[in-house]
């Protein structure tokens, strides 16, 4: 069986760590694994498949002789190094927002639009976490009956801002329990026992970057350039899974039983509905899972063609690392590297 | 100046404590204050205006010779004792859901429908907390231009389930920080670093009681029996303020500047929007405030006549205790007791 030379750029971050774990867990055909990071983060050693590997500072020479680079080191690092890796023969699957909306760059959720991978030019973009979770759930419904409009409110965990943000939430929580003021470094405001609209900058229309990503990326992934979608993105004091309250409008009524049947049989989705016990998707149960959990599917009482549903997914896993690894697996399977 | 004999039924709960504080803070004309609770909770003494008052077990005789009873001891207690108090001459302002939808019982948010108080028959219902916060904000907009449909997702704090639920959240948080399993007593699932759809029972259509309250009570309060409203209610690990992501549809476009102007001048509402610093309403800043904070008002990109907005309000205060005290003040002012 062929093996591949894999680089993880941003190996010391939360997503980088998850990618490393997933490569081992899914027995990805790794021939060589190179752990790369910014000079600031390089120097430590990390475990992989029983071995201890050094984290090296990213450079052109470190990006030579790689088949696949899984990048999750932020937009500016990707903008600088992804083209270098591609020029030297690698395919880069990039977690940042740097290339997502660039024409010619596939933006892929494997359960939704894997065929977009075929004509890549070296860089493939991994979508925004909140968008991935949404598309995995709503696309199968859209295939059955065309979606007219989406209104979504998110409940996003600290992990979306990285490992240090998760530490910050834990530290702030401890501070508050000890009656000390909560100190902030990563987030602009305390997150412990609090929540706030997503702190990415707002445009002139009042939408923050995170919300615009959901709108623009959903359109590109689902191939619906005119999809009507509005979002309110909110950061909540949860460690690592994102949740979303989703209202969907179709052009005709969508029976709840049909939606349940479709989502119960959709790849990457797990239907979690126990109406008797009021048991539905929750972050603590979505954390560490591959599937996006969906439940509370019901006919919208305010719209004859509306459906309401609720979903939770592991932001680090399906929202980032797993989706990227799945893309790599698909490329290998189709021989599209 | 006339003074009034006031009873607080449920004096030992979170809302009861807040009512006691508000009566003092707002210099409510209290002639006599009687603190009442279930036999289980009675016995302790609580402070009011420099005095130490006993909490007595509720009984017919304890409900004699009162002008106003502010009840927040749950539906079954209200169903048993509110009629007794009324029969003996008191006006009962009841925080439970027992009488809210009963024809002839005013369901009042003083900023919205104070005139409904005029024809009360002794019992006045204080609405559900989430509903109060919503109505205070959307009613002024509706007065300018008729609302066609509301899609709302809530972020509800532990306080909505009472003081013991707040203690449970703190205890669970401590347990998790100490790597112990989070134990549950009040909520069915751990709330610390987690969230879940509101745990009130769901009906056959998949709506939980909390969501149905929002639908039915909003209609009654705003006098719009056919208002189209859908809600997804979610409990989040916040101590005492509720937040809501609200999508509004009007019959024609509603300019953002007009909405900002209206809400900037509406009673009980405070416009909190600093787009540069990404500073909008947050639970920690809404806590302890009388006003409902609103911000992130923007044209809905998915609907030509849509507006999105974000609000936070103190669930114990305006969501319960303050609204009840305001009702009492209004009755006194109008001489409608």
UniProtKB/TrEMBL annotation, chains A, B:
Give residue ranges for domain Semialdehyde dehydrogenase NAD-binding.
Answer: 5-120
The catalytic activity of this protein is classed by the Enzyme Commission as: 1.2.1.11
What does the record give under GO molecular function? aspartate-semialdehyde dehydrogenase activity; NAD binding; NADP binding; protein dimerization activity
Q: Which SMART domains match?
A: Semialdhyde_dh
Is Metal-binding included in the keywords of this UniProt record? no
Residues engaged in binding substrate = 156, 235
Q: Indicate the secretion signal residues.
A: none
Q: Which reaction does it catalyse?
A: L-aspartate 4-semialdehyde + phosphate + NADP(+) = 4-phospho-L-aspartate + NADPH + H(+)
Q: Where is the active site?
A: 129, 242
Q: So, what pathway does this thing act in?
A: Amino-acid biosynthesis; L-methionine biosynthesis via de novo pathway; L-homoserine from L-aspartate: step 2/3; Amino-acid biosynthesis; L-threonine biosynthesis; L-threonine from L-aspartate: step 2/5; Amino-acid biosynthesis; L-lysine biosynthesis via DAP pathway; (S)-tetrahydrodipicolinate from L-aspartate: step 2/4
Q: Which residues bind phosphate?
A: 100
An example GO BP is: diaminopimelate biosynthetic process
Pfam families assigned: Semialdhyde_dh, Semialdhyde_dhC
Q: Which UniProt keywords apply?
A: Amino-acid biosynthesis, Diaminopimelate biosynthesis, Lysine biosynthesis, Methionine biosynthesis, NADP, Oxidoreductase, Threonine biosynthesis
NCBIfam families given in the database record: asd_B, PRK14874.1
On assembly, the entry states: Homodimer.
Family designation: Belongs to the aspartate-semialdehyde dehydrogenase family.
Protein name, please? Aspartate-semialdehyde dehydrogenase
| Organism encoding this protein | Gloeomargarita lithophora Alchichica-D10
């Amino acid at each position: 069986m062929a093996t591949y030379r894999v680089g993880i750029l941003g190996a010391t971050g939360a997503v980088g760590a998850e990618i490393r774990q997933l490569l081992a867990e899914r027995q990805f055909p790794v021939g060589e694994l190179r752990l790369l990071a910014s000079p600031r983060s390089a120097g430590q050693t990390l475990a992989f498949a029983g071995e201890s590997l050094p984290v090296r500072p990213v450079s052109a020479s470190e990006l030579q002789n790689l088949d696949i680079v899984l990048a999750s080191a932020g937009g500016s690092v990707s903008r600088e190094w992804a083209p270098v890796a591609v020029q030297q023969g690698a395919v880069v699957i990039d977690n940042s927002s740097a290339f997502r909306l660039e024409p010619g760059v596939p933006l892929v959720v494997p359960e939704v639009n894997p065929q977009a991978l075929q004509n890549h030019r070296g860089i493939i973009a991994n979508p925004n976490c909140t968008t991935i979770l949404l598309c995995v759930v709503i696309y199968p419904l859209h295939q059955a009956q065309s979606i007219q409009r989406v209104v979504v409110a998110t409940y996003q965990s600290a992990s979306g801002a990285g490992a240090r943000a998760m530490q910050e939430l834990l530290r702030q929580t401890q501070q508050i329990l000890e009656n000390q003021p909560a100190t902030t470094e990563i987030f602009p405001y305390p997150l412990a026992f609090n929540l706030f609209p997503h702190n990415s900058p707002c445009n002139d229309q009042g939408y923050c970057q995170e919300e615009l990503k959901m709108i623009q990326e959903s359109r590109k992934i689902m191939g619906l350039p005119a999809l009507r979608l509005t979002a309110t993105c909110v950061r909540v004091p949860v460690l690592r899974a994102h949740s979303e309250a989703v209202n969907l409008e179709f052009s005709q009524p969508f029976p709840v039983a049909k939606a349940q049947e479709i989502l119960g049989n959709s790849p990457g989705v797990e239907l979690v509905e126990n109406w008797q016990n009021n048991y539905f998707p929750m972050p603590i149960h979505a954390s560490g899972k591959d599937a996006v959990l969906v439940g509370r599917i019901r006919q919208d009482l305010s719209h004859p063609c509306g459906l309401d549903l609720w979903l939770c997914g592991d932001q680090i896993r399906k929202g980032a690392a797993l989706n990227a690894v799945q893309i790599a697996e698909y490329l290998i399977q189709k021989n599209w590297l």
